[in-house]
Amino acid sequence: MSISIRQIHPVFVGEVSGLDISRPPSPDEVAAIEAGMDRCAVLVFRDQKITDEQQMAFSLNFGRLEDARGGNITKPEDRRLAVGMNDVSNLGRDGRPLDRDSRVHLFNLGNLLWHSDSSFRVIPAKYSLLSARVVNPAGGNTEFADMRAAWDALDEATRAEVEDLVCEHSLMYSRGSLGMLDYSEDERAMFRPVRQRLVRTHPVTGRKSLYLSSHAGAILGMPMPEARILLRDLTEHATQPRFVYVHAWRTWDLVMWDNRQVMHRGRRYDQRQPRDMRRTTVGGDAPTVAQVTA
Ligand SMILES: [Fe+2]
């Protein structure tokens, strides 16, 4: 069976058929997936019953795996999954949902804000691959917004205003917007803000996109409240329903997205219900902008 990709949203998102992710793909299949990612920015694969090892092996066809360290406040001894896997569940090591007031759980609620994975890293993520192992009976969708379509729909004056701006991103900005303001010295050092361009150009297609994320909390050369109003305005613009795809999870779905071209967010669900989602992250190639000013 050969691989085929059918676009399922007016501006992006493809559903892939004819591929079994548990087996190594051929070079032609990898090329077809990459071309699909360049075009659709989000790909949905149904019925992919895979192990963590198979998920990591599949992800490695598209680049190196990002090190999950520095992306959360979970202590190494509390980790549920192997290095290379990002735990996007609500579970502790005992396999049960975390307590409602657990700091790790509250921190992880930041995933329900619009963001681009690892935009708080100097070299932000290229692709994310999320595998659904246990899904929620109600709620818990993941939404994706096409940042290329958002850029395309901006008026000329706004494009000129934002094109060369540089933002500062930090997990403390996204979590701070939820009222989580207390961090240890080690966490402050780990979450030190990094710089990212506000407008990116895709290396293959040349398409421009807004590089927004709830991790963005400042813009260089702009007073913070002014920057935050601008970022909110742009985010409102970029997440209009016409640019958004809503993914309703089925067990063993795998969804793969290009963080350079889309934002995403989880939606609320009953936190007492177990949810087991596992992510691999393919690292990017380079910073979007220099980190140090002259
Ligand atoms: Fe995410």
Low-confidence stretches: none
Q: What is the helix fraction of residues, given as a range? A: 10-25%
The distinct bound ligands, ions and cofactors come out as: fe (ii) ion
Q: What is the string of helix and strand elements?
A: EEHEHEHEEHHEHHEEEEHEEEE
Strand content: 15-25%
The order of strands across the largest sheet is 1-2-3-13-5-15-4
Q: Total strand count, please?
A: 15
Termini separation: 55 Å
- Give the number of helices: 8
- The overall average pLDDT, rounded, is 96
What is the overall shape?
globular
What radius of gyration results from the CA coordinates? 18 Å
- Largest sheet, strands/sense/barrel: 7 strands, mixed
Structural class: alpha+beta
Q: How does the SSE layout of this entry go?
A:
Layout: E1 4-7, E2 14-17, H1 27-40, E3 42-45, H2 52-59, E4 86-87, H3 103-108, E5 125-134, E6 142-146, H4 147-152, H5 156-162, E7 166-169, H6 171-176, H7 185-190, E8 194-197, E9 199-201, E10 208-210, E11 216-219, H8 224-238, E12 244-247, E13 254-258, E14 262-266, E15 276-283
Parallel strand pairs: 2-3
Antiparallel strand pairs: 1-2, 3-13, 4-15, 5-13, 5-15, 6-12, 6-14, 7-8, 7-11, 9-10
The chain binds fe (ii) ion.
